[in-house]
Amino acid sequence: MLIGKYACIANSCLMRTFQTQTSRSKVCLRNQHYECVARYSAATAERKRFYQDVSISQSEGGLYEINLDQRKLKTPGGKLFTVPNEALAIAVATEWDAQRDTLKFYTMHLTTLCNTALDNPTQRSKEQMITAALKFLETDTICYRVDEPHGLVELQKNEWDPVLQWIEKRYNVAIGSSASILGPEIPEATKDNLRQHLKSYNFWSLTGLEYVITQLKSIVLSLGMIDRHLSVEQAVLLSRLEEEYQIRRWGNVEWAHDYDMYELRARTAAGALFVHLTSESSTVKHKLLQD
C-alpha cells in the first residue's frame, strides 16, 4: 500500500554559504512564521502513554474522529480533532497506536499537520499560504548554482537541470538557474501560472505542501515529488546534493548523517502522504487506498 510505503520512509563551499546568508534577508518574515509553527507543533515533546486502544469513528457531519479509549482526541487549541476522510483517520490512528510507553509527539508528523490545519495557529488565509509557498522560488535550492569546484558544478547540472526542465514543461513556466548571489529572476508569468495551480489545492493540502517545501527548501522538488515525478528518496537526496558532495569528498560523522537523512525522509514522506490524503479528488483517494 502507498500508505505503508510512505510511512516506512518515514563543509559547504564559501560561495554557497554567502548565497545562503544573503537569501536569509529575503525570507526573515517567512522564517518567523515557520518558527511559530515549530513552537506550536513541539509544545509537548514527550508524555507518558495514557490510553490502551485507538479507534476511529465517523461523526454525523461525515468527518472522522480519533478515539483514545473512550476519549475523543482534541487539538492543542482545544478543538475536536476531525479529519476529512477515513484514509487520513487510519493513518493518524496508526501514529497514535505505534507509540509505546512514552508519546513522542515529534515523530507524529501527520497528527501535527492535522493540528496545524485545524487550529491554523498563525491565522493565515489560503491566499497567504500560496504567496508564502511561491516566495520559495526566489531562494529555491536547485536554482542556486556554484561556479566551483568543477565536480560540484557538473553534479548540479547533471542532477538538477532535468528536474528544472521537467517542471518548466509540466507547468509551462520559465524558472532557470543562476550562480549569482541574487539568484535567478523569476518572471511574473511563472508566478501567475504556479499560483493558479496552487489555487486548486484545498487548505489542508496546502498545509501539507507547505510543510514539504520547508523540508526540501524547494518548491520545484516538492511539486516534482507530489506529482510523482520524483520519489521521496530522490527528492531528499537532490535537496542535499551539495552536502552529499562535500561528505563524499571530506567524510562525515556517519551516525549524524544517517540520522539527519532518515529524519528528513520521514518528514518529507509524511508531508507528501498528507497532501495526497487530503486531496479533493475522490479518484486519488481511492487509488491511494488500493495501491
UniProtKB/TrEMBL annotation:
Membrane topology field: Peripheral membrane protein
Lineage of producing organism: Eukaryota, Metazoa, Chordata, Craniata, Vertebrata
Domain of life the protein comes from: Eukaryota
Family: Belongs to the ATP12 family.
Main subcellular localisation: mitochondrion
This protein's UniProt keywords: Chaperone, Membrane, Mitochondrion, Mitochondrion inner membrane, Transit peptide
Entries under InterPro entries matching the protein: ATP12_ATP_synth-F1-assembly, ATP12_ATP_synth-F1-assembly_N, ATP12_ortho_dom_sf
Pfam families xrefs: ATP12 (PF07542)
Subunit structure: Interacts with ATP5F1B; involved in the assembly of the F1 component of the mitochondrial ATP synthase (ATPase). Interacts with FMC1.
Localization of this protein: Mitochondrion inner membrane
Cited function: Plays a role in the assembly of the F1 component of the mitochondrial ATP synthase (ATPase).
Protein name as annotated: ATP synthase mitochondrial F1 complex assembly factor 2
A Gene Ontology term for the protein's cellular component: mitochondrial inner membrane
GO biological process: mitochondrial proton-transporting ATP synthase complex assembly
